[in-house]
Write a structure and sequence with these properties.
Structural class: alpha/beta
Radius of gyration: 19 Å
Low-confidence stretches: none
Number of helices: 8
Strand order of the largest sheet: 3-2-4-1-5
Distance between the termini: 52 Å
Helix content: 25-40%
CATH class of the largest domain: Alpha Beta
Largest sheet: 5 strands, parallel
CATH topology of the largest domain: Cobalt-precorrin-4 Transmethylase, domain 1
Order of helices and strands: EHEHEHEHEHEHEHEEHE
Shape: elongated
């Protein structure tokens, strides 16, 4: 019996031109696209004249939804999963689906279609030694002690996602604990209003107070 393939497709983090030819070819070829937010993915598909059936798959998806997806793959259908921006499986539930497929039918091929990632994008322009670094996902709203301890003790740069509403508060909290380390803050990567703030934490906080950061935020803390 021939099983379908599950393609893990990276999509642009902002600028719609930042998508690979392979990603476009894959999205055109599959039988079904699984999307974190079907509205966001529809805009991308419309931009490239791709007309495919889309189903929602996100952090709220139930076990039944996973079973439906598994059934489609078992029937030989090829599926692609995309996130709203960047690479699925990094700080989104794509990894849970991949693990579920591996555990329930290891004969199904999981095929990565690499592309944009805000983590590597920020690392590339930081100017720091990024031979080794730690990515911790989203800075937690609560129970922050473990995250603060990890950043404090890390011998390597640390990258995390943050909300623009909590950015200044969290940087101020870090300054009180790790002193005035070097930091790079990026907002709206690859979009029209892309901005970078680089310097020690005090300098960056001063710059941020003169702005009104909105949109996606990625932060890199030097060791």
């Amino acid at each position: 019996m021939d099983f379908g393939n599950l393609y893990i497709v990276a999509t642009p983090i902002g600028n719609l031109s930042d998508i690979t030819l392979r990603a476009l070819e894959t999205l055109k070829s599959v039988d079904l696209i699984l999307a974190e937010d079907t509205r966001v993915t529809s805009k991308l598909l419309d931009h490239y004249d791709i007309y495919k059936h889309i189903k929602s798959y996100n952090q709220h998806s139930s076990l039944n939804k996973k079973l439906e997806i598994l059934n489609e793959l078992n029937q030989g259908k090829n599926l692609a999963i995309v996130t709203d921006a960047g690479t699925p499986g990094i700080s989104d539930p794509g990894n849970e689906l991949v693990n579920f497929i591996y555990e329930n039918n290891p004969k199904i091929r999981i095929i990565p279609i690499p592309g944009s990632s805000s983590v590597s994008t920020l690392a590339s322009v930081s100017g720091f030694n990024m031979g080794e670094f730690i990515f911790i996902g989203y800075f937690p709203k609560k129970k922050q002690s473990r995250t603060l301890k990890l950043i404090t003790e890390s011998k390597f740069p640390v990258i995390y996602f943050d909300s623009p509403n909590r950015l200044v508060k969290n940087l101020s909290l870090l300054k009180d604990i790790i002193n005035n380390r070097q930091v790079v803050v990026a907002r709206e990567l690859t979009k029209i209003h892309e901005e970078f703030f680089r310097g020690d934490i005090d300098e960056v906080l001063t710059k941020l107070k003169d702005t009104n950061p909105k949109g996606e935020v990625v932060v890199l803390i030097a060791p």
